[in-house]
Specification:
Tetracycline Repressor, domain 2, 220 residues, Arc Repressor Mutant, subunit A, mainly alpha
Length: 220
């Protein structure tokens, strides 16, 4: 029996909490193995069989957790996106939309670092971010996911403001916000190698330019 696979005993006979912990350990081992291999030999040069072997599980076990190599490669990114969306949904109803988005993204950085490092070292997350930007297949998949995230954020902002989903203002705001975050993301690798506080400060500085960039006379 592989070290990280579930025991032969039927899962239904294990306490629910123990089953979930074992599943989480197996999933995290697959993510770590995938990102370590991709960092060493590239996305195209890494196979599902290699990921499973590095995590000491079978290929069948891999497919219980992930549909394909792309999904495991982007799994930490998905966790970060979900973390941010939950932070937006938790903002007080009286906050203006842009304030809610800005505060949520900065507040989420107070806790997301620990969530990331519970799965993979931060250096691997930074390395994967670069790999996504340099790998057409991963970049296309990530852009699709970000478009879906923008749709969810647009609906949440419309709900908070009591607006129709067809009202263009939430979508315009989310598009501006997402554009700023993508620009920060392009600079992310170098900033993250400094420290999280530096990255957080640069993020805040970029977000604070949304209002002036849209409303002010640049020539004044």
């Amino acid at each position: 029996m592989h070290a990280t696979e579930l025991p032969a005993e039927p899962p239904s006979k294990l306490p629910a909490g123990l089953r979930e912990r074992k599943k989480r350990r197996t999933r995290d081992a697959l993510v770590r193995s995938a990102l370590e291999l991709i960092a060493r030999q590239g996305y195209e040069g890494t196979t599902v069989d290699e990921i499973a072997a590095a995590a000491d599980v079978s290929q069948r076990t891999f497919f219980r957790y992930f549909a394909n190599k792309e999904e495991v490669a982007l799994s930490v990114q998905q966790m970060v996106e979900s973390h941010f969306y939950a932070a937006v949904c938790a903002r007080p109803a009286e906050e203006p939309p842009l304030t809610a988005l800005r505060t949520a993204v900065l507040a989420s950085w107070d806790t997301i670092g620990a969530a990331i490092t519970a799965v993979v070292p931060l250096r691997l997350h930074v390395s994967m971010h670069r790999t996504i930007q340099e790998t057409p297949q991963l970049l296309a998949a990530q852009l699709r996911r970000l478009a879906e995230q923008e749709d969810r954020l647009t609906l949440e902002i419309a709900r908070r403001e009591g607006l129709s989903p067809e009202d263009p203002r939430p979508r315009i705001l989310v598009a501006a916000f997402s554009g700023v975050m993508r620009e920060v993301g392009r600079r992310w690798g170098g900033l993250m190698e400094s420290d999280m506080d530096t990255f957080r400060r640069h993020t805040a500085e970029y977000l604070d330019q949304i209002g002036p960039a849209l409303a002010e006379n640049w020539r004044s």
